[in-house]
Design goal:
4 copies of one chain form a homotetramer. Chain A has about 325 residues and is an alpha/beta fold. Chain A folds into 2 domains: about 120 residues, 3-Layer(aba) Sandwich (Rossmann fold), CATH 3.40.50; about 180 residues, Dihydrodipicolinate Reductase, domain 2 (2-Layer Sandwich), CATH 3.30.360. Chain A contains 10 helices and 15 strands. In chain A, the strands form 3 sheets. In chain A, strands 12-11-7-10-9-8-15 form a 7-stranded mixed beta sheet. The longest helix of chain A has 22 residues. The first copy, chain A, is globular. The N and C termini of chain A lie far apart (about 45 Å). The relative contact order of chain A is 0.16. The model of chain A has no long low-confidence stretch (mean pLDDT about 95). Chains in contact: A-B, A-C, A-D, B-C, B-D, C-D. Chains A and B meet through strand 7, strand 8, strand 9 and strand 10 of A and strand 7, strand 8, strand 9 and strand 10 of B. Strand 13 of chain B pairs antiparallel with strand 12 of chain C, so a sheet runs across the interface.
Chain lengths: ~325, ~325, ~325, ~325
């Protein structure tokens, strides 16, 4: 087992910063030695704050550093393909935020590069590392619900990101539901064969200009005979609401809860508990767990449990859902036409 | 206010018997004087058991009795149209189980008869009289969630009825989801404009022969700009699972719970509460409340809050959902093509 | 089985009126034919409203009516002893509100009268007929928690009754906790051997003048080796809060919930469900169930499951708790000194 | 702000090991440089495993090391007094596991030493650093429940420690309830004036030989006029059950939940969620948070929020509760006789 994995983080937006913070102080066996971000002095400030040796505004300088074993890519999605290829070419192991890339063509090139240069690649589907989803997977594998037959996913944001983000987000199916597409595969242990998707703009009328929806649902069929429906919403003004269900042949599972703290306030108006406000609170542990898994796999020379291929498949489903939403037709997934 | 409404019950299957039992002993201002059922001595036994004066195997004899003010029709669906018309012709007020009729043509004829003979007609959408759904309606009317934007319905049966029933049931959209179509209209105060529906046979393979599904979802758009998704399932082996959500512009509502008794059992295996086993336990009070409302309206000379027109509209949505499921196309509701 | 039990209700305060209403319209096999109350025209108005033949301001006239089979005594506690003895002398079966009497001496005389005249007597411990407590009893009898070892009771009122009531209430141990003393015996299937009680006035300072407390707890030991703690409070400003727990040798039970409707409101402030506001809402079904049980027993010629002896024992515990609270000493129950 | 606090851990039992692990890899600004334990090669193995420079079997060698800023004392309770005094004499800041000492005399000597040598001292009441209790404190401070009037604590272990431990544990009031005594002070912002305690041996009969109980309750009065009842149990065979309630003048709080994972399993037997099995799972984050607080205070030159005085007061209450249990008398706390 390797003593230490020397890491770099590229992109110091919110997620990139968390990964850096986790690697700098909470991940045994990792040493964060380099951070890169093109914006002003963000890299410099972060390096100083977290006690990191090196920083750069040019990603290439980071990727070319021979002392780096692994790179965390948290740059904007449109740069993913290029970053992936370069990182692979320099022999760096890769942790990349979802989605893998913007298009399937890019995904294929990135996967080819990863394989050619024999590097490890983990995609940031952190829900697999959340205590509730992971426990659900364990329960299913233990046979507690028999054969999993149906997955029902609910993912609701407490509001919409700004218009500038929505414009380049790829739409609600790519930006939000992709997590549930991955989780559905994970929990059902099956591959989607077709998807039908619907949606509406209920609140955020600016989305209409981009053909996006703030409330959407996709219905999926799977090769195992299972099915799923997956809702995504930008309209949960009450908080961040992430739930799942798996109906099985001998029992079912309900995943998630709306609770933030385990405290109920009782007044004349009723019994109130606070709701998880947003994803950082909900998935804080999951973000740490996934990076620990990545480093642990690298140290042990094992393959991460969620890789570039998983990234590509979730992208395929998301793109098919968007096409279904746009055309009103059921879309068969590649290989299941 | 009328002292007493003299009632008859036609059809003494499970629901008809409950209505009879409720009218016989629990509904102030109602007097059950006649029960009718074609099968053997069922009417006679029921009359004796509940202390009812008259019984008959021929529905016509009941409908022709001039002493009867109101009739509860709980006969098989294929007889509804004829029963409705005859009851109206004899000037009886009518409480009829859902669905109103099998076809829209029948529904139109029945509605015409009801109006021509100026009788009251209530349709058995008992969920509107359930404590949880009724409270949700009150909360929405009180403005607690702002404008209702989205309804999410889950209705799951603990298993499938026998094949003989499924064969003539009209399919899962008519037999099960029709309750949620009505409730969606009720809670959103809006009319559906289109529906897309999907489904699969996950467990009960015999359904394939009838083009039915044991797991289905419908996505509805409404004229208010709201939308809805409504799941129906025959696969909740764990119990009877009826839930709803309404997302509003300023808050949301979760309706229903899985609890049967307010008792939790704590053991080494965890904390367990029992789940409502089936619809009689879940909607016992609602069945009583709806009949009380019917009798109360008749005594006061007021119109029931859920009538033949509501019955027809829910039928329209259910038939459109079935068509969408069969054709793979989005179906516009009448008047919204 | 007797066709019909002819009933009278004495005392038309809140509880008496409910019993009258239930008997008049919801209890099969019961016919309410007489109501009595000394105050003004309350009896007359109630008789008219509920369609009852006879009414009186003098309880004796009611008790002397030979056509009456059973009498429901819901008069003030200080009249219980006299009412019980007279009713028994006239051969009436008796349903009496808790507490049985004010003193043990009165209780003994009443019990002697009931036995001498061989009438049935049920005491109004309605919690035994509540769905949650009854289910808990069934679970315990089914062995689901092994041997019951500990009962923890919480009974909280949303405020204090007026000073005039508190003055004659007998104090919090007699007025409130007596329900839990009975339920502890019921669930543990054991008899209390000693009690220690403590309390404070946290809010309602007028109680100090009467030596009463608005927050109290009693610790009980039982002859089976089990124990219990029982809290009573007048300070649950948030609602009516009735809970229980039974720790068993192989599992435990949690009884009750704070939920009123099965509806959760989700807003930026959190997830809120309303709390049962007061005992009528919480125990509405239990009040009906206990009267049905009483009538049913009379029709079948069976003994009610909770009788005058249960009433006396709960009174013994409550009086001992009050004595312990006043003296600071542990009090042994009669027969266990 | 100091860059780094150099730490040592004394006593590498379960809690000591966790503190060492947390300090070694998860606490920014701390550097664990020394571990000590008298047993065999435990110190050596731990040092190697966690990458710590030095280890010793003799606590004195650790305390004499001039490079150490702070020491975490997790040795057996009977050694606390000596360790505290020596650590203070050597000018080390001190984090000490509860209880502070075994006797009040020892506590006074330890407190004198801490003050004389002007070192910081934090006591391991980790519940104050648990998310739920901390949120409750914030809510109370924010005025959400008005004035806190009553605390109700429940602490139940899933079983008894071995007889050898019970023998030297000081009994259930010292070993278990001391946490709730501290939390009651914390949440009520008040000091206890008297305590009455009761208990029984319900299951673990070996405890009778030591005058201990496996089920106990204490009733406390406070100088603010508030009161509390605090249950402790070794009989929660279903799991680790830690709950609290605070009744306030304008609302109440319920603290804690039985849930381990946010997953419910639905089967024919009901809806089951797993229960927290034991304290490591329940208070994992709290143990980390308290050490972070300790280190953070040392770096900032601030006093820890829970100190040796808090340790002494909780001890006073626990000893008084034990005396009350043994004598059957209400015991006044020092200064409130």
């Amino acid at each position: 087992m390797k003593e230490q994995i020397r890491c770099a983080v590229l992109g110091l937006g919110r997620l990139g910063y968390w990964h850096a913070e986790n690697l700098a102080s909470k991940v045994k066996g990792a040493k964060l030695v380099y951070v890169g971000d093109p914006f002003g002095d963000l890299a410099e400030r972060t390096a100083r704050e977290l006690g990191i040796e090196k920083f750069a505004t040019d990603a290439n300088r980071v990727l070319e550093d021979p002392s780096i074993d692994a790179v965390i890519i948290a740059t904007p999605t449109h740069t993913h393909a290029e970053m992936l290829e370069k990182a692979a070419q320099h022999g760096k192991h890769i942790f990349i935020e979802k989605p893998l890339t913007q298009s399937l063509a890019e995904a294929d090139r990135a996967i080819a590069a990863v394989r050619k240069h024999r590097v490890s690649c983990q995609v940031g589907f952190m829900r697999r590392f959340d205590g509730a989803y992971a426990e659900a997977k364990r329960r299913i594998q233990a046979g507690d619900i028999g054969t999993p037959l149906y997955f029902k996913g609910v993912s609701r944001d407490p509001g919409s990101p700004p218009e500038a983000f929505i414009k380049n987000s790829g739409g609600i199916f790519l930006d939000m539901s992709i997590h549930d597409y991955d989780i559905a595969r994970f929990l059902l242990s099956a591959e989607a064969t077709s998807v039908s998707a619907h949606g509406n703009v209920l609140v955020h009328s600016f989305m209409e200009a981009y053909g996006d929806a703030d409330q959407a649902i996709a219905y999926l069929s799977f090769d195992s005979g299972a099915a799923a429906d997956i809702e995504a919403s930008r309209n949960a003004f009450y908080g961040y609401d992430i739930r799942g269900e798996v109906i099985g042949s001998e029992g079912s599972l309900l995943i998630g809860s709306l609770r933030h703290h385990d405290v109920q306030l009782l007044t004349r108006n009723g019994s109130t508990h606070d709701i998880v406000p947003a994803f950082p609170q909900r998935f804080k542990d999951a973000y740490l767990n996934e990076i620990c898994h990545f480093i642990d796999c690298l140290r042990r020379g094992e393959a991460p449990s969620v890789n570039e291929q998983d990234g590509k498949i979730a992208l395929e489903i998301a793109l098919a859902a968007r096409e279904s939403y746009e055309t009103g037709q059921r879309i068969a997934l590649p290989g299941y036409a």
